[in-house]
Amino acid sequence: MSDFVLCIRNEGYSASLVVGKVYRRLPDPEAEAHGMIRIIDEDSEEPEGYLYPASMFIPVILPEEAPRVLR
Known about the structure:
71 residues; alpha+beta; five-stranded antiparallel beta sheet; 14% helix; 30% strand
């Protein structure tokens, strides 16, 4: 999966996720095995990110310059 994902749904998480926003995905094979994804959400104070259902996101490929800015 890409290092970045686009939020396509935020039901139940409207305070933490913005539909249409790109988020940085953190690797978490155990979470992904359970259909979850770990991202840095609107509470960017948490460096380990939070878990959300993977179905709320789609992977995105960004131009070469974008990941440096978003990290």
